[in-house]
Amino acid sequence: MLIGVPAEIKTLESRIGMTPGAVREAVAHGHKVVVQSNGGLKIGLTNDDYVAAGATIADTAEEIFATADMIVKVKEPQPQECKMLREGQLLFTYLHLAPDPVQAQGLLDSGCTAIAYETVTSPRGGLPLLAPMSEVAGRMSIQAGAHCLEMRQGGEGILLGGVPGVPAANVVVLGGGVVGVNAARMAMGLGANVTVLDKSLSRLAELDALYGPNLKTIYSSKDTVDEYVSNADLVIGAVLIPGAAAPKLVKKDHLKNMKNGAVVVDVAIDQGGCFETSKATTHVEPTYIVDGVVHYCVANMPGGVARTSTFALNNATMPFMIALANKGFKQALSDDPHLREGLNVHAGKLTNAAVARDLGKEYISTTEAIAA
Prior knowledge:
Layout: E1 2-5, H1 20-28, E2 32-36, H2 47-53, E3 56-58, H3 61-67, E4 70-72, H4 79-82, E5 90-93, H5 101-110, E6 113-116, H6 131-148, E7 170-174, H7 178-189, E8 193-198, H8 201-211, E9 215-219, H9 222-230, E10 234-237, H10 252-257, E11 263-266, E12 287-290, E13 293-296, H11 306-327, H12 329-335, H13 337-340, E14 343-346, E15 349-350, H14 353-359, H15 366-371
Parallel strand pairs: 1-2, 1-4, 2-3, 4-5, 5-6, 7-8, 7-10, 8-9, 10-11, 11-13
Antiparallel strand pairs: 6-14, 12-13, 14-15
């Protein structure tokens, strides 16, 4: 199979779909890889590194999309990339289709087969291809939030961990999953007062057993969200429903009860965000203010630490990428029910129920899609 790796074109996105190590692995399995010139240069991965690993170099993305059997990316295809996809071509990347009808329609119109990293599952019920970026984003959310609390950024001028004689900040994390636990770890490490809200009592029990009295665990309800968000200096939105749009847990009315200069960081923004006032921002202009509350809603947070993120992502995606290349997508998906969950689009049809529901479209099951 010919695997194509175009450079990412989303604003300030410096990650790349395959590292030289992943290329070497694909070549060892008998596949060819073509990488766009200087696609990894910003994170120190040169054309020479890729050539040494066995790849060929293409000058433009157009060459790659025109010839490759499978496109491996990081971020969702932008409109100009959707137009280059073709019938029968395999796309393996993050998609986050539920809040993005324009991208969804572009993929449907192309006739391609699109497998989304974020809906591939694991035998334990996790999301193995989303987890590494969730770890990065969770940890980054505290860095970003701490910076936004500075006066210069519009924040209330509070140091996250406080100092002797001055109290630390109150950090509230909505969601106790991978993002939430990594955010909580970072915030506790900096000395903040940290509370995690979640609807899963078993998950709250796990977190309590791990961190004891250093972490406050609270069952999430309308009352507790009202109470803890209102008193927070920093709120991290870390809620995820696989494939579906994020629930709007924090309404605009909540902002009126928050401190002037408080900060919200919406890590769920890729799935539409869990704050009613969230709108996607970029690393160029990451924040805006609503009712005195600073909003940080960067849709590709891990792109800010692109080298770490690229290697972490490749560690997770490489076995699935090799399986798709070795077997072809139909056999690979037939053999692996967890990879099959990643199929979102095939031959002009949606194949993920949650995505179809949120977009108001019909869908066919993955089993039907593979059999077609």
